[in-house]
Write a structure and sequence with these properties.
Elements (H helix, E strand, L loop, with lengths): L4 H12 L5 H6 L20 H14 L13 H12 L2 H22 L8 H12 L6 H17 L2 H7 E3 L18 E3 L1
Parallel strand pairs: 1-2
Helix pairs in contact: 1-7, 4-7, 5-6, 5-7, 6-7
Length: 187
């Protein structure tokens, strides 16, 4: 039996500890709320430009390497759904304001949309946010990074290709060499 997304989310949520973004905590079950369907988001959170920027930046947080990245794992759809159905309107503001600030900085610095910027330019924009070089940048970066990481590692790709799912791990081997480990296992 494969682990479900909510169970995986509980495990990933523990990684962030007490600074967990409230909508993620709700979805992980730390806050009583009915289970939502897997359909379309109940409200529109992002403008098309914000959605394009969010998608592009998700890909920079977890790019495609020898495993699929955030876009292939459906992270942008996850972020849409989580913010639409598990967040309060005020909790969306740091994400929306951060995307708008990154878009403005991209237009100023590169005279093009952040979604159309090169990967190096997008990395520079995310670094500016992380280093709090614009109002609310660090808050945006922390929350956005949490959204991308939880979306990725609770997806089927994150659980089965990035990590290796073993519902019942093999026998205990106290002499197993760490150099033989090629993936992080989840159970």
């Amino acid at each position: 039996m494969i682990i479900d997304r909510r169970s995986a989310l509980i495990g990933v949520a523990a990684m962030f500890g007490s600074t967990l973004f409230a909508p993620i905590a709700r979805a992980a079950g730390r806050d009583a709320r009915p289970v939502i369907d897997i359909g379309a988001p109940s409200v529109r959170v992002f403008t098309p430009a914000q959605h394009a920027t969010m998608t592009a930046l998700s890909d920079r947080v977890i790019p495609t390497t020898d495993t699929p990245g955030a876009i292939a794992a459906g992270v942008p759809d996850y972020i849409d759904k989580l913010l639409a159905d598990w967040s309060l309107p005020a909790e969306r503001l740091p994400i929306i304001a951060g995307l708008d600030a990154i878009e403005a900085r991209s237009m100023t610095n590169y005279t093009l949309s952040a979604a159309r910027a090169t990967p190096a330019q997008q990395d520079a924009l995310l670094t500016a946010a992380m280093d709090n070089r614009f109002a609310g940048g660090a808050d945006f970066f922390d929350k956005f990074r949490q959204l991308v990481i939880t979306g990725y590692y609770t997806s089927e790709i994150g659980m089965t290709q990035e990590r290796e799912y073993l519902p019942v791990p093999a026998e205990y081997n106290g002499a197993f060499l760490y150099s033989n480990v090629n993936k992080v296992y989840s159970a």
